[in-house]
Amino acid sequence: MTSSAIIPSPIKPIATLPIDEGLAQALLSSLTEYGAQLHGRRVWLACSGGRDSLALAALCVQLYHHGRLPFLPQLLHVDHGLQADSSVWAQHVARWATAQNLPCQILRAQVKGQDEQAARHARYEVMRAVLNTDDVLMLAHHADDQAETILMRLIQGAGVNGLSGMQPWRTQTQGGRRNALWRPWLTAKRSKISRYAQRLQLPYIDDPTNEAGDNVRSGLRRDIMPVLATYNPNVIDNIARSAQLLSDAQSIINDQAIEDLQRVAVSDLQLASAQRVLNIAVLNTLSSYRQRQLLHHWLTQDEPLPPTKQLVDEVFGLSRRQDSNHQTALFWQASLQSYVIRRYRQRLYRISSDWLDWLTLPLGKVEHVISDLTDEVASTPAIRQQPILMTLRSDTHFVWQAKIWPHALATLLGGDRSSSATFSKDMLIKDTLSKGTLRDKLANHQGTIRLSFAPLARQQRVRTVSMPRPQAGKKLYQTLGIPVWLRESLVIVSVDCRHSKDGQDDLIENAAAVPILLLSPFDCWILHTDIMRVESNHPAAFDEIAEGVVSQIMIQKAR
């Protein structure tokens, strides 16, 4: 089968044909610049079969044959199925690759939509599925593509980042895999590539939609660029130079934003792409333009494409509000995930929809039995003890676990010294545990400890050691500073102590199912109970407990 879109030249080996030194120099200069990043990594080349990608593949074959290129890329061709001849084009690319002894994979994509953007998204998705971590994907974008991209972004109102154009080397992470996009021909002109393809008589695919398409890029290529060239024949080079200058400026802006983010981010509340948190009080110490740039950078984390200026402005406005209304939620449908941006007190949250859905999953009750805490603590140094590990909630995306080390539990239940009983990651209030109490009783008998982890009921009253009286519901949430979306993810840890007496299990007096801890995914609080009493300030045991009780979230499936 044939297609009228395929240039009618014979398929033949091209390794020994004359090399275009200008195009070779552009590729080899980029290879020198990014040689350290390329070392030891597998390289693929996205090949549509069009003039540009087939020419880049041909040049790689020639340079490799002459020992000037240390690798031979593997070709990836994507059949979108959008053109009637798309399957013929795929077979044609495979035959040409075979003639050059180039490995080639044909991939098929399901395009959701009919426009070029939908096809581009589907194309990159199927190629990413083939790439392994740290693989490199070569792209044949050239200087004319760069100029069209910048003009297209200019009329769309892009900022410095958008107007810096496509980058010659870009690292991206998705689904837990890190890959690089490499564009070695951004300094090469389309006209030079065309002459090279004609000299080699490359049988490339001349897709008619490239010139006659009704998208913005095709219109700029067909109608605008020729007119601009009449004003300045160096328009392509000049736009490329401006893009490089803007790219340098964007690098400076990025460095400043990264430095600001280190100051403003609330590290204890970060959860990769699921939850990003800023301290609004620290954010407001920056100038307004640095705040906007930081918010742009903060929102863009974990996403390949930036937010709109409108969203950045809305988030900026949310951060500047002085009222106590925490109900406002801004929604952002990004490329990889959807997010909600909310403010709670002096913190700004960017929360993924997956994370919000996970937080609504029901919590069940789980238990753990320790045969004899006293013996375990006395016989095993703290550094060698194994923690009690309990899974509180999990699915394919996230796992919430509580870790409690025996020595911390022993201290919590009444250690050998007076100590602080406060347990919060961001605040120390120097209340204390009494000396002796329950652990003294445990030392005098053989007994078991049953730890239970159960969801906090909405009207269940609890009292942390920093509270003067028990609280429940909204009052408790406000006192502890728990945002609305975390209020269904609170767990009470209770201890039930029993000992053997005449073959029967009897409860130790005043120690049956005593709540000792309140856990959230990001925080822990010690609860005031009858087996503890406040005495004096002594932070040593708090440090021991803080190191030995951990509430943690682990990501099962990264976006």
From TrEMBL:
CDD domains: TilS_N (cd01992). ATP binds at S48, G49, G50, R51, D52, S53. It is found in: Cytoplasm. GO terms for biological process: tRNA modification. Gene3D superfamilies: 1.20.59.20, HUPs. The keyword Ligase applies. Ligates lysine onto the cytidine present at position 34 of the AUA codon-specific tRNA(Ile) that contains the anticodon CAU, in an ATP-dependent manner. Cytidine is converted to lysidine, thus changing the amino acid specificity of the tRNA from methionine to isoleucine. This is tRNA(Ile)-lysidine synthase. It comes from Psychrobacter halodurans. The lineage of its organism: Bacteria, Pseudomonadati, Pseudomonadota, Gammaproteobacteria, Moraxellales.
